[in-house]
Amino acid sequence: MSVFILRRLMQSLVLLCVMTIIVFAGVYAIGNPIDILISPDATQAEYDRAVRALGLDLPLWQQYLVFLSKLVQGDLGKSFVFNEPALTLVFSRLPATLELAFAAMLLSIVIGIPLGLWAGLRPDSVAGRSIMAGSIFGFSLPNFWQGLMLIMVFSVFLQWLPAGGRGPTANFLGINSSLFTAEGWQHLLLPALNLALFKMSLVIRLTRAGVRETLLLDYVKFARAKGLSSRRVIFVHVFKNILIPLVTVIGLELGSVIAFAVVTETIFAWPGIGKLIIDSIFVLDRPVIVAYLIVIVLMFITINLIVDILYSVLDPRVRLADMKS
Amino acid sequence: MRPLMYAVAGVFAAVSLLSAPVSAAELRVGLSTEPTSVDPHYHNLSPNNALATHIFGNLVEQGPVQELLPGLATSWKPVADDVWEFKLREGVKFHDGSPFTADDVVFTIKRAGNVPDSPSSFAIYTAAIKDVKVVDPLTVHFVTDGPYPLLPNDLSGIAIVSRKYGEGASTADYNSGKAAIGAGPYKLVSFTPGQSIVLEANKNYWGDKPKFEKVTFRPITNPAARVAALLSGDVDLIDGVPTADIAQLKKNSAVSLSDAVSNRIIYLHIDSDREVTPHVTAKDGKEIKNPFKDVRVRKAISMAINRKAIVDRVMEGVAIPAGQLLPKGFFGVSPNIEVPKYDPEAAKKLLAEAGYPDGFKLTIHGPNDRYINDAQIVQAVAQMLSRVGIDTAVDTMPRSTFFGRASKLEFSLLLVGWGSGTGEASSPLKSLLATYDKEKGMGPSNRGRYSNPEFDKTLAQALVTVDDAKREKLLQKATEIAMADVGLIPLHYEVSTWATRKGFEYTGRSDQATQAMDVTIK
What we know:
Chain A is 74% helix and 2% strand. Chain A is mainly α. Chain A folds into two domains: 2-72, no CATH class; 89-318, Orthogonal Bundle (MetI-like fold). In chain B, the strands form four sheets. In chain B, strands 1, 8, 9, 10, 11, 12, 13, 14, 15, 16, 17 and 18 form a twelve-stranded mixed sheet that branches. Chain B has a four-stranded antiparallel sheet with strand order 4-5-7-6, covered by helices on one side.
């Protein structure tokens, strides 16, 4: 196990290095942030001063070395736009995205798994067919359009829920989150639903496929022949076995919900990191882009690690030491 | 099933009641672009400056059409060729109750151009000031580098901060509210990037009492979501109403729209300098001499563009066709210049006269995320040029790439916009049309490298003429020279639109700023 984790860590380090080099080269190739940030009536002298102030006058490799030497001291640089440490910015936006992501994943699991089970156990019933038809919609509706429709229906016509923004936060067990206020939930519901619909469909389809496959396997037949109750067969023998693909997908999807909730965050004006990164890319705010990607890469590495460990818990045949990580 | 649905509806209704109705004393604004900082001297950016106006206040203020109004200074006049005297307002207090004095002005001028790591500093507004002398606590003398008539305009761009809180304060101290102590009509309560900016009324404000107890700005960058937030009652006022939604909103009785001609001109810059320009070739792809050096070709292009069609179709009527650099009513606008007439036949004739009876091949460039409907305008122009025989291709790109390449002169014909921050004609004349000169700071955004010595002479004279009437004449003359040369091709002036919920009304501003001070309760 420890060898496995150590090997993972080494790989992660290499990955981070490569990623930062790509981002540096990429942003450099797009253009100079000063061209966007500076007031257009600035003189050339003023332009040169701004370029120097942000350290953009050095050759790219020197800029990268400066970045590395500061990184070693835990400093990811200051945002060109906000003049605040990039890491602080990313972390200040992270809670909003996390609560959105968890609410969305919770919705998709709590609704998706039971519906998937139902559709898998009764594939030819009206309910089973409707669930599957519905999941096709969940898959294929563009996130963007779907979000606007949710706003139109629930905020503009029915006026039940606010059209966007994050509600007030409250402190609970040292965590400051809008999950702990009623108004916070009102604000959260629509964006979470918008994010959840796609994942929910995914969970439904995976669960259904798993159930359909597993039901035909010998051990299920044997369990039934042994005279176990149908409930026990389904919830212990079938369910546990379909969990492995589910855990993998849910784990990875959680990562992608956190990292790529950009569209939902933009439409619902949710102050999360998705919106921060898209705004930063528009103005080539390199320190923020780099800090964000470092955090996200680390997060994916951690999630993958947890998923692998969960495998070995769920399926005793899997030995972490044997895995090629 | 029925009872369940009722129950669900009931819960929703109960929950929505929790979001209490808002009192008239509160204003909630949905902004299309977010201020990046509360520090008024960190980044010279319109949304930042608009926010600073609420909290700080300037010596000279700008009215709805950027006319100069007394602010923290009650009057100003030149007392020598190179000295301006400003009389400060008596009895003004900062938010903490400490008095505003000449010393704060001295401190502000020193700080404005020197904020560390500023990506676009305010040094352009303080560059002309050689020295600030305190005559008495309410009189200040600004010594300039020679005669400098634009000092009041420049000072209207600088927010006054208090020395007591500003000394040694960093941008972060302003963002946290620690140093954000000004003399403006509103006080900062909180600044949460991406989420909200909350202000409260300054009861001791020297001018008109603030109309709202509390003002909340929320950045809602997606235009459709911004409109939805207004329709659902989440916010009372939005700016940047998308042109496509205007017709629909006009029919909605719960919403009222207001607009104002902006100081922003959308124009085509045209490479009139180089022997060979990168994106023009003969129709068979062979390199040719730059046709834009010939004024007849530039004129032909201007005549080939149907400005009215662009305004009506692309801009949905929310723009004004342009013939010069600023719309009517601004200082320095020439009454003698008409909007160029659309005449494709005459354009063809001019092209033939200039030696291009069959036209040539051209690629026109523009940004696609900077100005209202920018990419569509470029496409419309390309079609109009193709109609007179110039085979025109279109290449639009995000502003993050566009402006860098444009400044490196990689384009031949490009769409750009210019907002006159000072609210008068010298700003675009100096930046866009004056002969490019790095040392003198002239023509920094002259991406067509237009150059005419007579124009330069007239403008230079205007820039040192303190007498308003004489200066206006000179600015008009300079504009006329450049427009006769077609130094650039004006297309239209943007019109900015705001929408308010019933019960509120907004008086539009030409500088496109969104300010709580311009909202009235009906």
